[in-house]
Write a structure and sequence with these properties.
Radius of gyration: 13 Å
Shape: elongated
Helix content: 55-70%
Bound molecules: zinc ion
Number of strands: 0
Distance between the termini: 35 Å
Largest sheet: none
Mean pLDDT: 84
Order of helices and strands: HHH
Length: 65
């Protein structure tokens, strides 16, 4: 069991940061390349991107707390 993205051949753990543009150039490149070749991660990316678009709409209100 490892939650270390460095050990993961897939990039799911990086997708959130990827969507938010929070990765460094090397990681962004790695994720982009992986998404082209991996259906499962590409689907996960779409979900994360959707969720993050929703979050962006809610964020201003919700983070005020
Ligand atoms: Zn993958």
């Amino acid at each position: 069991m490892s939650a270390d993205p460095g050990d993961d051949p897939h990039v799911r753990l990086l997708l959130g940061a990827y969507v938010l543009d929070a990765l460094d150039a090397e990681e962004t490149c790695r994720v982009a390349r992986h998404l082209q070749g991996c259906d499962a991660c590409a689907r996960a990316y779409v979900e994360v991107a959707d969720a993050s678009a929703l979050l962006a709409l809610l964020r201003a209100e919700d983070l005020r707390e």
